[in-house]
## 1
Amino acid sequence: MKRGEQTRNIILEQTAILFNKQGVAGTTMSDIMAVTGLQKGGIYNHFASKDELALAAFDTAWGHVKERFEQLLFPRQNSIDRLHALLNLFLSYSDNPPIEGGCPVLNTALEADDTNPALLDKARGAIQEWREFIVRTVERGIKYGELRPETNADMLADMLVASLEGAVALSRIDRSVQPLEHVLSFLRNYLEREVRISS
Amino acid sequence: MKRGEQTRNIILEQTAILFNKQGVAGTTMSDIMAVTGLQKGGIYNHFASKDELALAAFDTAWGHVKERFEQLLFPRQNSIDRLHALLNLFLSYSDNPPIEGGCPVLNTALEADDTNPALLDKARGAIQEWREFIVRTVERGIKYGELRPETNADMLADMLVASLEGAVALSRIDRSVQPLEHVLSFLRNYLEREVRISS
């Protein structure tokens, strides 16, 4: 890796964490200079503006989340097990988070929703990827006789994403894993009792 | 109402909306001066700092949410109907929100969680009020034979708050009421089928 590329990566990794913890508006160039050890010129050499950096840093954060999810998904083949892998991704925010500061998708979306359409688009795209994973998994599970055919894939997708995002947020607010464990316990039980076809 | 009190109320009402839409860090004194029509001195006359204003503005926003909830709750006596009133509070964010910019509790909590402990405490207190309402309602419902005695009040409280908060967020991100409607439909169905005792 060339030196310029290394510097660019350091900036992205460090600011992705800062933005996730403090928000983009809550992070100053001085904060970014402090964590990267770079001068202002060294940062602007790679990113024309804080907004451009925020877009690239979201991709870095989301890349960490997806990498973790791939690890949890492998080598699960059964569709219910694959849905449980998504639950475990959110559980990991409490003990070994893919990135510090909570879920970057919800943090970014709620900061950007009234202020930054380009950044909101990134967060919306990430949520859409989760929903499509769930819908695809449910459709495949129904086809292979693992899930009840009456399962409403779109409704389940919104329900899982909403409750998991909300649960990570509650656990961060409470500084306790309990809300997340309550929600995971509810959802696991629901998937086993109402969605899985017992073999 | 005295003139000073009127001015204070105007500042609180206007900045509560600004903070809810843009975040506290994303709102400048110039923004506050623009929406209130006041000079900087006129604002500092009532609030010593933006942080002090943020704490008071949260109380204003939360006051609007609670006022709406009281309207939806009245005159429901049955405990299931009282839980449905909470669902309807969150539905109101899509058509007639108690305050513009999404749920002030989640917005505030996620902005403040790594940066502003006093403001985070306010948001945590609000969430706690919802949870206590749910737990109290469930316990009362079990006592009066309206709800199944095996209902886990604490788990249901976390599940309802997490999924409703997540649903409002998803609907704002998508600019569509559909995620919220999916989640509400799921929860209504769950309350009717798994929690209510049919008479």
## 2
Amino acid sequence: MESTLDFKLLEDIRQKKPLVHHLTNTVTINDCANITLCFGALPVMANSIDEVEEIVENADSLVLNMGTLSNEQYNAIILAGKKANQRKIPIILDPVGAGATTYRTRKIQDLLEILNPTVIKGNAAEISILSGQYGVLKGIESQGIYNNIIPTAEKLANSHNCIVAVTGQNDVVTNGQRTFIIENGHWLMGKIIGTGCMAASVIGCFMATGIQTLEACTCALTAYDISAELASIRADVKGPGSFKAALMDEAFNLQITTINRLAKIRKV
Amino acid sequence: MESTLDFKLLEDIRQKKPLVHHLTNTVTINDCANITLCFGALPVMANSIDEVEEIVENADSLVLNMGTLSNEQYNAIILAGKKANQRKIPIILDPVGAGATTYRTRKIQDLLEILNPTVIKGNAAEISILSGQYGVLKGIESQGIYNNIIPTAEKLANSHNCIVAVTGQNDVVTNGQRTFIIENGHWLMGKIIGTGCMAASVIGCFMATGIQTLEACTCALTAYDISAELASIRADVKGPGSFKAALMDEAFNLQITTINRLAKIRKV
Amino acid sequence: MESTLDFKLLEDIRQKKPLVHHLTNTVTINDCANITLCFGALPVMANSIDEVEEIVENADSLVLNMGTLSNEQYNAIILAGKKANQRKIPIILDPVGAGATTYRTRKIQDLLEILNPTVIKGNAAEISILSGQYGVLKGIESQGIYNNIIPTAEKLANSHNCIVAVTGQNDVVTNGQRTFIIENGHWLMGKIIGTGCMAASVIGCFMATGIQTLEACTCALTAYDISAELASIRADVKGPGSFKAALMDEAFNLQITTINRLAKIRKV
């Protein structure tokens, strides 16, 4: 494992219990709150335009998810995001379904004109589309093969001066200059709704410690993927339903020594 | 088992991974997305008036659920439904709480003036009320005994030229001419929220294969009921909470041979 | 155990299946509906301004939760609450995040000018803030030590002529004159989202039987805490994910004899 990656961040989350504010979709909002709590941070999910700024005033990171976007939600997202940028707390943007509809693509592009996310996390299709490449979504699922996802992600990272995380069978995490590939994870993650959304929450937890680096983002996804691996091998996991509960359990019980033993990360 | 019923449709879902768009309630939206994924289709749950038409443009079926209806949601439902009717993809209507309030009953009746659902799926009280009969709901639960639910369902099917599915201890599925009774299922289904909503999603999965028939609807509910039976007999199921996770597992693992062995369907 | 506390109320819920209407947040709405069903009542979660009054007309109790408050939701809450007060059915108010933002604090104070809740249930910080004392929230979590929470709760109960329930390691339940301390519960309750929200739903179940007393509220929280204890000792519970499913199971299976055996309640 890369020596530059220090999973002690997990201990920091559990010690500091940072506040991770979410403006997210109605489908996986409960899962995002629970995974945040399982990793040791405190979630808050309020989304009224009348209070999001004040919540961000006290938050340690902000997760913005476009899953069930509406104009009202978009306006609250912009207000919260501006405040987060002012306060220099990390914004993790999950551009769910970028490219799926004209409305959604335009709203995400508008957002990227106004806000400076610290991390953009998406699947290969979403990242390709935001990078100006060809990408295919079926609903919100990435379709097709993306052989050149690494340069695509690097390009997006450079054009927005941010970290880009591409989740999939392997995860790619890049700041445009340096790139990590994470070979952890489990195919059952694709069989429950919300594993992508939860990945953004976990990045939100790790970055809420104050460390807004490529390494922190890589640690977050690795720890999350390993939780999924540990869940998948449990004797009581018999399919997606029991896997989801086990994923929460394993995130909560995760030990740094276990991460160090199982992490499969390489630099490219 | 009826020889006209071919559960190979389940294999078709898993092969084609059709897109099942939902406009549904905020209570069970996560469950509906997960059961769709467990049966092998891809769920999409976006509900903004600004994008539902474009999503339906690419969807293979549309599930409309009135559980937490608002005027805004109703308008999005109508837009999505018109597009689905234009494209001749199946609409599965779940008129949750029809008869529970004046507002909801009127909105559902308005909808039925505008849209042509392929399937109306409800409990005995909802179906009776929509059929112009007497029905009693307590909240959204059917109360009372409905001895003549078969002719009631047939009447509704004929008056709207659609399939009607009545879920309960036994399920009734009819197109007004032919009627199947499904004697599968388990009482624990009534002890978790959302089994009715999920039933509509499963019909949405089966019909998204392109087969918009009475048989496809019957196959869907039978497969779903058998998943529940398999979940109920698992040693690790100790109540509604563990049952719900097991139901997802068993839907995901369901084999056609198992369905053929356990299906209890009769024609009336 | 106090002889004045009669857990036969649990049997009454299961017999009568009262209707517990919720106007609640989008994060834990599914959990609140499920725990209500597990305790034997029927949940209804509709929140449109166009139908809440008619639903309350037929409801046996009303749970009002401020978790993801908006102006629209607030207006529906006020309409529903006025009807509940007119009909003299119990209102259980969960002032989630009172003190967390100016908006939220003001809206909760406005509500308390208009509605007469039967129970205000919150964590120590929320109850302290509503009582005009100092309180600290991190997101929606109570922070700090509240040594004088009992007089604080009593003061709030007296000023609003209602029951106040403070959940935490021990629960405090008071009507301002008499006060019970419940020493049941388990720390895992703090590791999943929604245990506070579900506590309000359980009070809603117990009070929906028609018994709007300090004792009914105390019985509710005790039964709920004991369900959590039973869940926590199950061999298949390995963390927060499996605990949540087990909590539902144990609430559903809970026996009055078990409650009587395990209840640790004292009068102060």
